[in-house]
Design brief:
Blueprint (H helix, E strand, L loop, with lengths): L1 H53 L7 H11 L2 E6 L13 H12 L8 E7 L2 E9 L8 E9 L1 H51 L14 H60 L2 H25 L10 E4 H18 L2 E6 L5 E4 L1 H17 L5 E10 L4 E8 L6 H4 L17 H11 L3 E6 L6 E8 L4
Parallel strand pairs: 6-8
Antiparallel strand pairs: 1-4, 2-3, 3-4, 5-7, 8-9, 9-11, 10-11
Helix pairs in contact: 1-4, 4-5, 5-6, 6-8, 7-8, 8-10
């Protein structure tokens, strides 16, 4: 979980720092713009008042100046040519303002309004000075309109506190949103890490559910699919190992069984030549069972060697009939009726022994599901449109559950008592080696299972 402990701060801290810096910068810009706007507005008002007074269109009486000062909340100074200030009702810091203005006006003769910023004690002031008065302004050569910036600074200060409080609240809200966003990433990753650790520890059934339609949800689905594929792969690998072990065991059994079986067969054949016709028929049945044992041994041995075919054009009916004749007596003994509907003249490229093994496996499976007896039907036909030969083996048993049909040929254990369950898998491999296919469904006539083998027709 070390990644989770480092991923959260790596996601959240840059976001929080960026949010803090951006908020402080926005706060500073807002305060600066507010201050500039308010001071520019005052400057415009003072400039307009100074221009009107300097134009000479109004009499510069004490009553007029007092009314104008009340309106502007400012102080108007009239300055004589000798630098004296006209006396009229005083203004806060009146003496300090006169002294500061006198210092700034010394040697200045411009007719354009001059913007002057003054500091008297702890109070800042803004002044607009206009020289070169005209009209009926008398002996005055300059006029100065001065206002205190204390109210502006106070308003800006209060606004700064309000904006600061709002900024802090915004930082907290957006920090919480960022925290939730970071956790929405780290929590799913934490779940995926736990799942991967459990998979690495050997659990194959573990799955994770993440309610996300984005990348995290897609990643969770991919990891679940990976777990499914891993479970399937390991199951198939175990099956392959089991089959490999079975093949090795079969190779050893072959050396122990095949030679004695051949010797028994030879002795039975010699014995058949020395007995009468009655005993010869009984010996023929024994020989049939020995032939069936040879097929079983061949089927087992095929698991231990690579599947290679020695295929030649053969009549499908002849191969199927051979196996049916071999199994008829045994099936009759188990009260199973074998019905044949085999069409002659269907030629396919077949490896005789391997194909008989397929037919024998399918007949054996059909017989196994009929412990109390029943019916097995074997038929052949042609799909002329696709140029395929058809072999169908169906029974009157209970049939195959729908959920088992997809994996029927993949399992290495069919659930049968004392059986390895490899017959269907081996049959599919042999049919595919012949270039054909095999599938299973329900028999429409007998009600049990129906296996259909499709083989390409030979070009003859």
């Amino acid at each position: 979980m070390r990644l989770i402990h480092t991923l959260y701060p790596r996601l959240f801290l840059p976001y929080a720092i960026t949010l803090l810096v951006a908020t402080l910068l926005a706060w500073w810009i807002a305060i600066t713009l507010l201050t500039s706007t308010l001071e520019r507005r005052l400057e415009t008002q003072l400039r307009h008042a100074a221009d009107v007074l300097a134009s000479g269109t109004l009499p510069l009486t004490t009553d007029l100046l007092s009314r104008l000062e009340d309106l502007l909340r400012a102080k108007v100074f009239l300055i004589h040519s000798d630098g004296r200030f006209e006396e009229h009702p005083p203004f806060p810091d009146d003496d300090g303002l006169r002294s500061a203005l006198a210092d700034r006006l010394a040697g200045s003769h411009t007719r354009e309004p001059a913007v002057v910023r003054l500091q008297v004690g702890s109070t800042p002031y803004l002044a607009i000075v206009r020289s070169g008065l005209g009209g009926n302004t008398g002996a005055f050569t300059a006029v100065a309109a001065v206002t205190s910036l204390a109210d502006v600074r106070r308003a800006v200060h209060n606004t700064a506190w309000w904006l600061g409080g709002a900024a802090v609240a915004g930082i907290l809200v957006f920090s919480w949103i960022g925290h939730r966003a970071a956790r929405s990433i780290t929590i799913p990753i934490q779940k995926l890490m736990r799942m991967s650790e459990r998979i690495a520890a050997g659990e194959r059934t573990v799955r994770t559910e993440i309610d996300d339609k984005g990348e995290m949800g897609a990643l969770a689905d991919a990891l679940n699919r990976m777990a499914d594929h891993l479970e399937t792969f390991e199951s198939e690998a175990a099956a392959r190992n089991r089959l490999a072990a079975l093949g090795e065991m079969a190779a050893r059994i072959a050396h122990e069984i095949r030679n004695p079986l051949t010797a028994i067969k030879m002795e039975i054949q010699l014995l058949g030549e020395a007995v009468g016709s009655t005993e010869r028929s009984r010996l023929a049945r024994v020989m049939a069972e020995i032939d069936r044992l040879e097929l079983i041994v061949s089927s087992t041995l095929s698991m231990a060697r690579s599947q290679r075919l020695d295929a030649l054009p053969m009549d499908l009916a002849a191969q199927v009939n051979t196996v049916c004749e071999l199994c008829t007596a045994q099936l009759a003994h188990r009260r199973i009726a074998l019905i044949s509907d085999i069409q002659a003249g269907i030629v396919c490229k077949l490896d005789g022994d391997r194909f008989k093994q397929v037919v024998f496996n399918l007949l054996t499976n059909a017989a196994d599901v009929l412990p109390a007896g029943g019916t097995i039907r074997v038929s052949t036909g042609i799909d002329r449109e696709r140029r395929l030969a058809l072999l169908t083996i169906e029974d009157s048993g209970p049939g195959i559950a729908v959920q088992r049909l997809e994996t029927l040929f993949d399992t290495t254990h069919a659930g049968k008592t004392n059986r390895l369950g490899i017959g269907l898998r081996l049959s599919r491999e042999l049919v595919e080696l012949h270039g054909g296919s095999i599938d299973a469904d329900r028999s429409p006539t007998l009600g049990g299972a129906r296996f259909t083998v499709r083989l390409p027709l030979a070009n003859v």
